[in-house]
Amino acid sequence: MPRRRRLSEIERSTIAQDRRNGVSAASLAAHYDVSLKTIYNVVNHWGERQTANGSRSRVVGIRVSDDDLRRFDAALSRRGIAHRSDAMRRLMLAAEGVFLPDDEMCDELRNLGAALNRVGNNVNQIARRLNEAKVRGERLSYPASSHRDVRALAGLVFDLADQVQEMSRARRSLLDLEISSALAGLAERDENGAE
């Protein structure tokens, strides 16, 4: 009998929430690659874990510096969110989407690295020819083509820096959207006095 993978706490929470929102057990089983029985067990056990007053079952503690906590609170304040615990809970549930690598960025960085390697190889060949001439006591030859290769490398390095900076900005914007989506609704809830 093949062994099924173990569901994480976040996956269990998401499954229970999705079932409450009407997602079929069959589609959840297919999505998480588990049996229907596992889905039903997760939903039943998750409901049992809630206490009579609806509180959550675990407390998670972390240590942060005063500066880190101030920055986090400031970020929540800019979004109009008053309750740190609600924000942390939402961010934890959204972590799967936020912490995924950006495949497009990885491909672009590989392409930029390959271009840099090609030009770098040309510069290495220039340096080797100059060193060999120096060792033999010959006049150092630095033709116009070598000068062009060095200038091309310098231009490429600046272009790479600009492209990496732009990719970084784009990734930050995407993460900001993901985080904003995860925290959506908390500010309005806080304004209405809900805990």
TrEMBL record:
Domain Bacterial mobilisation: 116-133
Alphabetized InterPro entries for the sequence: MobC
Keywords, ordered alphabetically: Plasmid
Pfam family, one: MobC
Protein name: Bacterial mobilization protein (MobC)
